[in-house]
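WARN retry 2 of 3 for item q-0093 after timeout on previous attempt; input resubmitted unchanged.
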Amino acid sequence: MAYRNFKPIIGTIINMARGNDCCSQMMSLRTENGIVNFMITSETRIIDSRQLRSGLRVAAFYDASLPVPLIFPPQYRAQIITVLGRDEQVMINEFNRNLVAADNSLQLNIARNTSIETINGQNTSCSLGNQTLLVYYTTTTRSIPPQTTPRRVIILC
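OK item q-0093 returned
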């Protein structure tokens, strides 16, 4: 899967509705820029298999290389959805052996309490270098690139 094209939209769930069939749902998010709708299908990865409900703050990743209908509010097909904590940020990026993101937007400083796991929730001791990672963090330094000690890192295999 080409994760490099995945873009996040962060917001609060305001509505969950049944989709076109029993295996799909429509999720509406309130974001800083207004309402955004996401189609959730059987192919959507929901991190930790969390039950999605109104009031949860989430990040929904969509594939920016896919066409989208020109409607308002915007509607995307969700590829990955994850629930976020207060003030928590999340990103998907390719990280080099020094744990610097490919676009130089973030450098990771892994701590002993950083949770490291695979996309299917299994703990792992694999090297994080030269991997595509889903990173959960709160604060960064003002350096270039910004540095953070993430709370959680998920390896996207």
